[in-house]
């Protein structure tokens, strides 16, 4: 019995970090923030797809093969990205939040590991496909728009694509930091 009391005393003296009072609310707030960002991303992708499809019908793209290919590449890459983001959000919703911490952490780590593969394989392919689709349209723009407007579209596209690449990389970097933190 003395041995048990000694072990209990040692157990009580162990150094545990204090549990933050607002820990659960911080996690809930962060989760809601991530869900809102995913919804915003989805809305932006849907609106962009809708604009491109509207552009497709406005220009009667089905009559011009080059226009059809360019817009098809752009819409297709965005639609695939939207599909992957949607399936990922469903997958994340299925994570067992109320399971033991080890199980949840293991599944969350597996989720972000899969996201890492998506970011380093699928994202560059889809981004490149979108850019190729846009550049496929440039000869049509050059023929059908004023020269100054064509040059405006051409030069501004470099800044837009560079900004988009930076934004995508920033988001990927954030997810990689989450993964790194989970793997500690």
TrEMBL record:
Keyword vocabulary terms for this entry: Membrane, Transmembrane, Transmembrane helix
Superkingdom field: Bacteria
Transmembrane helix found in the keyword field: yes
Ranges annotated as spanning the membrane: 40-61, 67-84, 118-137, 149-170
Name assigned to this protein: Uncharacterized protein
């Amino acid at each position: 019995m003395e041995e048990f009391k000694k072990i209990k005393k040692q157990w009580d003296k162990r150094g545990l970090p204090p549990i933050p009072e607002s820990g659960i609310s911080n996690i809930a707030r962060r989760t809601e923030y991530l869900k809102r960002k995913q919804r915003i991303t989805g809305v932006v992708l849907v609106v962009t797809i809708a604009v491109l499809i509207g552009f497709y019908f406005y220009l009667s793209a089905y009559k011009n093969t080059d226009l059809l290919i360019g817009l098809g590449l752009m819409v297709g890459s965005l639609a695939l990205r939207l599909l992957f983001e949607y399936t990922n959000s469903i997958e994340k919703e299925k994570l067992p939040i109320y399971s033991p911490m080890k199980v949840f952490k293991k599944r969350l780590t597996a989720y972000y590991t899969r996201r890492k593969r998506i970011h380093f394989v699928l994202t560059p392919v889809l981004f490149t496909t979108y850019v190729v689709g846009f550049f496929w349209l440039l000869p049509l723009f050059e023929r059908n728009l004023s020269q100054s407007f064509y040059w405006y579209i051409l030069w501004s596209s470099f800044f837009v694509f560079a900004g988009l690449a930076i934004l995508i990389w920033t988001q990927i970097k954030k997810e990689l930091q989450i993964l790194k933190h989970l793997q500690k």
